[in-house]
């Protein structure tokens, strides 16, 4: 068989001088000068760039042709684990209960409601399959009914570029009300009286910068708030008791809330507590008091405070649930008679329920690794909340929980049509010692009969950024590797909040390299205990986790038998220096600002995967991206692959696949997305079978 020839990207060195530093980027031409227009209309991509990406896709397809049968088989397995006519547990609100359901074979859900307590009388609110028909990409970011149940609004993206359009429908007439609204992030809220819609607008750089108000049934758009700091994100919502509309402002270090009384929705917002650099807070109204979650006064893992003032400025806050290091308070939900707070301790979730008198109890489970998530619902004056429990071996289970009687009612168990026996699998929680003595949690899933002698192929997943925790959830996808004798593991590295907010702080800015060395420590620990062996590990990560993949490829190429980098953030120095990109100023708190800070420049240059590619043998690498991705632009993986292929001294293939019809999240349909996962997994199997590790 003739081996396909990889594309050779032309080199056009671009010299970049920045705060006393000079670098050369020979593949800068891959960034289309017209990239903003390309995000909206991919047909405007420059011809030479399109030709190069098409050639890369063709090469990857040819190289992976021997895996097509395996891809098809894995896709069929994953699809077989999805209930085709699935539906969500109905969520009550007043006289109605709301839910989403799929038709057999449907890629997108139908949103509907029916009279409360009945199984008939369905009313379709939003028919996503009809709206998606004929479109290569369609995704609804948010949808909700108005409090009076008369209107329904949704925000849709038809390109994958995260340009959302909000529509409002009159449910009685079916009429679309007013002109569509273009939104920055798909974020919107009805006022509690249902008369007004509030939404976040995006500027020319695709950043959220304004909040507007409009009469929900159509009318003039009124600017009510404009944010001067281009690094801040915006959001809108309302308090649990419907007393206020809330505008959320913040980045990863600092937050601020502005309030509008629900009784006066046309008034201008008033700041609750002015922003203080490094202080984060979020608030909600609990009838006669405010509840505030904050890291103020050194509460690294957050505490809860209360305020009985009408405007809850910080001088009115009174500590309620004190800060405990290692007990990370991730959020809370308020009901008329109860509060439920979500906590994470040593990478495990729990819920704590308290009544207004302060009597509390814990909701938790006994497995070594599991995820427990609150689904707070629509209603405030209720004693029933809902949570979802799952583990790597146990499919999702939805429980209604009576907060007064403590009775659990199982409402739904995730059905696996092709069958699933949890007893066939084992989930374990290991602790890998990092170089500085910290213990890195590692969650492992395998079949109970898998030998622990290093012979099993190992997939190790990692992320480690923005404070996002990698919760030990059930996956219909990972079983397609595990059932083939693989061991699936997740390294809960620093940069996430798996062990608290301090765990995140220890994996960002000047401590970013902890993320990379934690992942390597997890791999070495797994090998030392028989869960794998060097050169037989497939490393997998996406987005910022793709940056992790690029870093560990440079640091320890010998460990990996394959690396899968999905939409990888690998051109860190160039991206964090380009202030025209949507996320650059908002992400300086995470990475540092190399446009003004020499130390930040040198630090980023020292680990940025694209900048650190060197002449060394690299393992097989598959990088994927989306042409319409505004978060990790298509040219990042394209440039990285070109430089890797030019400089590697090994024989392992370096592959690139760009989805020309999608963005950051890949394909939008529930089945189409699985085809991309099946390709990733088949690549891992193929690479390890051929033994290309350095």
Structure description:
The structure is a single chain. The protein has 694 residues and is α+β, with helices and mostly antiparallel strands. Helix 3 packs across helix 13 (672-690) and helix 7 packs across helix 8. The two termini are 24 Å apart. The protein is globular. Strand 33 (458-461), helix 5 and strand 34 (487-491) form a beta-alpha-beta unit. The chain is built from 13 helices and 38 strands. Strands 31-32-34-33-35-36-37-38 form an eight-stranded mixed β-sheet, sandwiched between helices. A four-stranded antiparallel β-sheet has the order 3-4-5-6. A four-stranded antiparallel β-sheet has the order 7-8-9-10, with no helix packed on it. Among the domains are: 50-79 and 431-571 and 609-690, Rossmann fold; 326-415.
């Amino acid at each position: 068989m003739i081996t396909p020839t990889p594309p050779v990207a032309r080199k056009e060195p671009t010299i970049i001088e920045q705060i006393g530093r000079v670098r050369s980027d020979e593949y800068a031409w891959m960034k289309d000068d017209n990239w903003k227009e390309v995000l909206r209309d991919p047909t405007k991509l420059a011809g030479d760039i399109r030709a190069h990406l098409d050639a890369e896709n063709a090469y990857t397809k040819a190289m992976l042709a021997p895996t097509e049968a395996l891809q098809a088989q894995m896709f069929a397995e994953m699809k077989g684990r999805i209930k085709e006519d699935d539906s969500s547990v109905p969520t009550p609100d007043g006289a109605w209960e709301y839910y989403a359901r799929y038709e057999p074979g449907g890629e997108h859900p139908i949103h509907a409601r029916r009279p409360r307590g009945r199984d008939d009388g369905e009313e379709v609110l939003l028919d996503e399959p009809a709206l998606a028909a004929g479109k290569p990409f369609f995704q609804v970011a948010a949808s909700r009914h108005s409090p009076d149940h008369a209107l329904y609004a949704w925000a849709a993206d038809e390109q994958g570029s995260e340009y959302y359009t909000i529509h409002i429908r009159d449910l009685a007439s079916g009429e679309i009300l007013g002109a569509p609204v273009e939104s920055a992030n798909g974020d919107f809220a009805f006022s509690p009286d249902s008369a007004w819609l509030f939404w976040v607008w995006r500027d020319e750089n695709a950043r959220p910068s304004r909040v507007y108000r409009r009469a929900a049934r159509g009318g003039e758009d009124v600017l009510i708030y404009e944010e001067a700091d281009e690094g801040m994100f915006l959001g809108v919502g309302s308090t649990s008791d419907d007393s206020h509309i809330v505008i959320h402002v913040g980045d990863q270090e600092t937050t601020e809330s502005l309030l509008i009384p629900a009784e006066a929705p046309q008034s201008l917002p008033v700041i609750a507590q002015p922003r203080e650099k490094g202080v984060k807070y979020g608030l909600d109204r609990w009838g006669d008091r405010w509840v505030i979650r904050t890291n103020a006064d050194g509460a690294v893992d957050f505490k809860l405070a209360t305020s009985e003032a009408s405007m809850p400025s910080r001088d009115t806050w009174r500590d309620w649930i004190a800060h405990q290091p290692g007990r990370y308070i991730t959020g809370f939900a308020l009901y008329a008679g109860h509060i439920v707070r979500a906590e994470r301790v040593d990478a495990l979730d729990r819920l704590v329920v308290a009544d207004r008198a302060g009597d509390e109890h814990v909701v938790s489970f006994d497995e070594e690794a599991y995820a427990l998530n609150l689904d707070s619902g629509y209603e405030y004056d209720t004693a029933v909340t809902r949570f979802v429990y799952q583990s790597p071996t146990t499919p999702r289970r939805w429980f209604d929980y009576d907060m007064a009687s403590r009775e659990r009612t199982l409402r739904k168990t995730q059905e696996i049509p092709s069958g699933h026996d949890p007893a066939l699998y084992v989930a374990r929680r290991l602790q890998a010692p990092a170089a500085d003595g910290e213990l890195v949690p590692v969650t492992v899933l395998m079949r109970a009969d898998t030998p622990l002698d290093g012979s099993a192929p190992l997939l190790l997943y990692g992320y480690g950024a923005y404070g996002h925790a990698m919760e030990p959830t059930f996956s219909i996808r990972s079983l397609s590797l595990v059932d083939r004798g693989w061991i699936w593991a997740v390294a809960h590295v620093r940069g996430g909040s798996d062990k608290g907010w301090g765990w995140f702080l220890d994996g960002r800015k000047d401590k970013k390299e902890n993320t990379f060395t934690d992942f390597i420590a997890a791999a070495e620990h797994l090998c030392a205990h028989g869960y794998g062996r060097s050169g037989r590990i497939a490393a997998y990560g996406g987005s910022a986790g793709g940056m992790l993949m690029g870093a560990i490829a440079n640091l320890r190429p010998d460990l990996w038998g394959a690396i899968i980098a999905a939409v990888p953030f690998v051109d860190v120095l160039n991206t964090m220096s380009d202030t025209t990109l949507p996320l650059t100023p908002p992400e300086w708190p995470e990475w540092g600002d190399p446009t003004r800070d020499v130390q930040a420049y040198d630090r980023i240059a020292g680990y940025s995967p694209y900048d650190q590619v060197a002449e060394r043998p690299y393992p097989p690498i598959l990088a994927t991206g989306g042409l319409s991705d505004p978060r990790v632009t298509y040219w990042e993986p394209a440039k990285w692959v070109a430089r890797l292929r030019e400089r590697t001294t090994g024989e392992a293939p370096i592959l690139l696949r760009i989805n020309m019809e999608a963005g950051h999240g890949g394909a939008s349909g529930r089945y189409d997305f699985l085809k991309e996962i099946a390709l990733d997994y088949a690549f891992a199997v193929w690479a390890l079978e051929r033994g290309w590790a350095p």
